[in-house]
Design a protein that fits this description.
The chain is of the alpha/beta class. The chain folds into 2 domains: 246 residues, Spore Coat Polysaccharide Biosynthesis Protein SpsA, Chain A (Alpha-Beta Complex), CATH 3.90.550.10; 74 residues, no CATH class. The protein has 11 helices and 16 strands. The termini are far apart. The chain binds guanosine-5'-diphosphate-alpha-D-mannose. Keywords: Nucleotidyltransferase, Transferase. GO terms for molecular function: mannose-1-phosphate guanylyltransferase (GDP) activity; mannose-1-phosphate guanylyltransferase (GTP) activity. InterPro entries: GMPP_N, ManC/GMP-like_b-helix, Mannose-6P_isomerase_type2, NTP_transferase_dom, Nucleotide-diphossugar_trans.
Length: 331
């Protein structure tokens, strides 16, 4: 009998780099950018072909998830400790509930179009055939430093072994990887719960896996430090594979990404309403109205009575703002 495909949507991050649209009680996956539905709802709709869908999130987002994705089952994790502990925990819980299915793990905050179902089904098939950890590879169009980079081995039958996986390289290394034909890791994975848990058992997640087997979920989370699945497992995995995918894909990581997805108004990317005079190359995003005069290459983001202004090529520095706001719980 074919294994059921279980979609596991990760919705526990906050997406801080889209502050002030994203806030501690309004993470990126709950937002909609010019579409009718939230990124989370779009993700759950996109995996409508799966036999079951779970959304994994933190307790404080659970109600928001239920409202936005009522068709999915909600799993909450004892502590937000990044995607490594989250994915190991979910694999364990779902194996208890539905047996050794094939998990299709997806971020909840990406914008994707193209043959998603075909790619996802191929990844699921490869996960079962190889009993390995399957990633989806996107051809890069720039040396982005916020992604994982995958060097594929010889490809056969729609997939290739992963020769190396390097999470978030520096700029110079990313430039070399793009020249050498590496893929971006799309953050979309397929594996059986057993394959993931056995890889996790010889990784920094090992102390957690032992305690999950004992059934003590709080102790399992307490036993590990926050770490992403990419650093914890994928960089050292010996049985990882990549399915190259021709998807139109964007993770909307920070405000400069909107330049790639929005129609231009006189050379500016505008979300919401704006008047622009002698202004060029700006990203103007708001839930109200922005006017920009005689300025270039800025991000102006204004939501819920909070405004961020930053040079576009320093858009990542919003992290510094959020870290200061978090210190006194104003995020
Ligand atoms: N449940 C849960 N979900 C989480 C947690 N932390 C993050 N997530 C969710 O996991 C997804 C990915 O997390 P990010 O933190 O946004 O990852 P990233 O830095 O963008 O890097 C990952 O994605 C890139 C593609 O966008 C990859 O290129 C990279 O290798 C990596 O897999 C998002 O949907 C986020 O909401 C957590 O503690 N718990």
């Amino acid at each position: 009998m074919e294994r059921p495909i279980v979609a596991l949507v990760l919705a526990g991050g906050t997406g801080t780099r889209l502050y002030p649209a994203s806030r501690s009680d309004r993470p990126k996956q709950f937002l909609s950018f010019g579409e009718e539905e939230s990124l989370l709802a779009e993700t759950v709709n996109r995996v409508g072909f799966a036999d079951e869908t779970y959304v994994l999130t933190r307790e404080s987002f659970a109600d928001g998830v239920r409202t936005r994705a009522p068709s999915a089952a909600v799993l909450t994790e004892p502590e937000p400790k990044d995607t490594g502990p989250a994915l190991a925990y979910a694999a364990h819980r779902i194996r208890e509930q539905v047996g050794d299915c094939v998990l299709l793990c997806l971020p909840s905050d990406h914008r994707i179009s193209g043959p998603f179902e075909t790619v996802a089904r191929t990844a699921a098939r490869v996960a079962v055939e190889t009993e390995g950890l399957v990633t989806v590879g996107i051809e890069p169009d720039r040396p982005a430093t916020g992604y994982g980079y995958i060097k594929p081995g010889p490809s056969e039958n729609g997939f290739a072994p992963v020769e190396t996986f390097h999470e978030k390289p520096d700029r110079e290394t990313a430039e070399r990887y793009v020249r050498e034909g590496f893929y971006w890791n799309a953050g979309l994975f397929a594996w059986t719960p057993t394959a993931l848990l056995s890889a996790a058992a010889s990784s920094p997640l090992a102390p957690m896996v032992e305690r999950l087997d004992d059934g003590d979920h709080d102790a399992a989370f307490a036993a590990v430090d926050p770490v992403s699945i990419d650093y914890a497992v994928l960089e050292d995995a010996e049985n990882a594979f990549v399915v190259p995918a021709a998807l139109d894909w964007d993770d909307l990581g920070s405000w400069d990404a909107f330049e790639r997805i929005l129609d231009k108004q006189d050379g500016n990317a505008v979300l919401g309403e704006a008047v622009t005079i002698d202004a060029d190359g700006n990203v103007l995003a708001s839930d109200g109205h922005v006017s920009a005069v005689g300025v270039e290459d800025l991000v102006v983001a204004s939501f819920d009575n909070r405004t961020l202004v930053v040079p576009k090529d320093e858009a990542q520095r919003v992290r510094e703002v959020v870290s200061e706001l978090r210190d006194d719980e104003r995020f």
